[in-house]
């Protein structure tokens, strides 16, 4: 039994090795989360029926506004404001290629001023609409039921009138091309 070699004592791992290992684990977790988000986003997009993919931005926005109106009474002010603002911003982003969701209200309004040929309803209604949304989101202003109704009505008018104006512009452009 003399042939057995004695076991060495514990091996010390340096602080730098522990920090490196922790960084490696953190990078792995971040990459895994990113991969999972991408898979879930792709699964959500592929789970849409062909009919949903063919719906117009107007139909999508109006359906969302109708659903919000049905749920508005029981909603807290901030989630309501975020949703009504998102509906309008999503619609404008889809139809006009304005990065509305990535912009602050001020940036968005500035972009509206710099673009030409925009529907008049945007200049007329959006400043007040966005001010009201910002007051609730950031100044924690109380939102009365009449204000909810007015914001829903304004959102509906902006979406419908913008769609009408854009449809008219597209029709006019097609006529010019065919002439």
**How far apart lie the N and C ends?**
104 Å
Reported for the largest beta sheet, the result is: none
Helical segment count: 7
Q: Oligomeric status of the shown chains?
A: single chain
Mean pLDDT: 86
Can you count the beta strands?
Answer: 0
**What percentage of the residues does DSSP assign to strands (E)?**
under 5%
Shape: elongated
Derived from helix and strand composition plus strand pairing, the structural class reads mainly alpha
What is the gyration radius calculated from CA atoms? 27 Å
Fraction of helical residues: over 70%
Unreliable runs, pLDDT <50, ≥5 residues? Answer: none
What are the secondary-structure elements, in order, as H or E? Answer: HHHHHHH
Short précis:
This protein has about 180 residues and is mostly helical. The protein is built from 7 helices and no strands.
